[in-house]
Amino acid sequence: MATKSIFVVGAGLMGSGIAQVAAQAGYETKLYDISKDALDRAMASIKNSLDKFASKGKLTQEQVDNAVANLSTTSSLEEASQSDLIIEAVFENVELKQEIFQQLDTICKPEAILATNTSAIAISKIASITKRPDKVVGLHFFSPVPLMKLVEIVSGVKTSQETIDEVSKVAANFGKEAVLVRKDFGGFIVNRVYLPYIRMALLTLTEGVASVEEMDKAVKLGLGYPMGPFELGDMVGWDVMYNAMNAIYHDTDDTAFAPPLLLKRLVDAGVLGKKTGEGFYLYNDKGQKIGVNAKLAII
What we know:
Elements (H helix, E strand, L loop, with lengths): L4 E5 L3 H12 L3 E5 L3 H20 L5 H10 E4 L10 E4 L5 H14 L5 E4 L6 H5 L8 E6 L8 E6 L5 H13 L3 E5 L8 H17 L5 H12 L5 H8 L1 H15 L8 H9 L11 E3 L5 E4 L1 H4 L2
């Protein structure tokens, strides 16, 4: 079955980005969220992003208009019934994802593919709640979705080759470079490699080895990374980091992914990074860095 229509579940940062690239690629795209305010914010963000691409000459006005025309919103999950590919992009919680997939399994046509944007939860665990595990697959995008080229295509234990082939075509049409994750291990490729690095940066900070700025500078100059660990965590969101670490830790029992106490406290306090205006750095209402958070510069 060739994909012609896409239904995105969740209008947060990831969901809105996925909806944008789907609409840009010419797919009939519907963005779902239970919150109308979230949908309004997502549409405003998408239009702003498209306009920025146009102002830089990366999109024509006609391409912008076509993308907007391809995109609609809804607060009814039932409207997923005729979509060919459903991409879930909600909060990283296995029970919530399983609940959504159970509903989608009932709502969607039998041939529809159900994909999850999870960054750490095993695909097979999500697929197990459905009657179509062969059509459940991981499509893990990276933030910000319109700019980041990578997507991890993750095969669950029962995911069919036909499903892998179809989502690979969709990812290519999105303009993404796909990597296939052949074993359904929590964290897949990127998170399994870089989350222990983030964890060690947090532990090194609490040991008083160096300040936030010094550690970010050292990693950028010494390893050639475009961002240091604290800049990266602020951009991604420390709640996202915590949930991903926790999911992999509980899936693998590997202490390399056990969330440090400092990370737990940041999440408890709502100090989540750029999206809250405060992480290890401080940000203005445009998301621009304006300085170091003195409370966290040296622990």
